[in-house]
Write a structure and sequence with these properties.
24% strand, Nucleotidyltransferase, domain 5, alpha/beta, 6-stranded mixed beta sheet, 262 residues
Length: 262
């Protein structure tokens, strides 16, 4: 088995792969003040809960957008499964080709999402990653990473409204029944859900025009994607485990050939 870990700003997602089948999927809160021993304890408890032995893992791969936790969690994994994880972005890029800048400058989650998309979908392709930040990753018809769009995520936008406007409350992420809200909460929900959907629709059309392609695959992943997709006019494919799948692909390729270090 292979253990794949994606450390995000809000959650840490863990996947266990038996060959190419995802047999374990779990999440834990991203706590920046935890030690390696504390994370190791949580990981051991998680594996026991799923009746999986630490000895079952042949290797591990990790991506992180929280630099202070990269080494902390890496050591926790080593303590539990007795394997040092491959860290994406440290000479491990899964063969991703980049057109506009050095691949080493890209975020690890971005690399994993692109590798996953290239392994599963036709190009040109847009990956809409709707998590703490809203990101649109662009892959051209030849499979090259062409660039990215980054905007505040749904929760960031809602939190900013509540903290900056005295009369607006903190609310949960929920799709309202209608676009036109009739009370404060519904108005804010409409702005966050339908507003994000409308932004995605508009950006997808603009990206398609810049690529000069009529047929572009659009894949959505990330914690908020399932709630946003039904509100979009453009066709988006929901792929909850795209980043984990990309991590598994990066691990497999790292065992076969040396990575590009540009």
């Amino acid at each position: 088995m292979i253990l794949a870990i994606d450390i995000g700003n809000t959650n840490i997602t863990l996947g266990g792969y038996d060959r190419d089948k995802l047999v374990l999927l779990s999440r834990m809160y991203t706590a920046r003040n935890k030690t390696s021993d504390e994370y190791a304890t949580g990981l051991l408890d998680l594996l026991r809960f799923h009746h999986i032995s630490p000895e079952a893992f042949d290797g591990a791969v990790l991506s992180s957008v929280v630099p202070q936790l990269t080494r902390v969690f890496s050591r926790a994994v080593s303590l539990v499964v007795n394997k040092e994880p491959i860290i994406v972005g440290e000479k491990h890029y899964g063969g991703l080709k980049v057109e506009v800048l050095p691949v080493s400058s890209l975020g690890a989650d971005l690399i994993a999402g692109c590798v996953g998309a290239l392994g599963k979908y036709p190009t040109p392709c847009i990956v809409a990653d709707l998590g703490t930040a809203t990101k649109l990753l662009v892959l051209d018809k030849n499979g090259y990473f062409s660039g990215c769009i980054i905007a505040p995520g749904v929760k960031i936008s809602l939190d900013a409204l509540a903290s900056s406007a005295a009369l607006l409350p903190s609310i949960s992420f929920t799709k309202p029944e209608t676009v036109i809200g009739t009370n404060t909460v519904e108005c804010m929900q409409s702005g966050s859900v339908y507003g994000t959907a409308a932004m995605l629709d508009g950006l997808i059309r603009r990206i398609r025009n810049e690529l000069g392609a009529d047929d572009v695959t659009v894949v959505a992943t990330g914690g908020y994607s399932k709630g946003i997709i039904p509100c979009c006019e453009e066709k988006l494919i929901f792929d909850e485990n795209l980043v984990l799948d990309g991590l598994k692909m990066i691990y497999d390729r790292s065992q076969k050939e040396p990575e590009n270090t540009n």
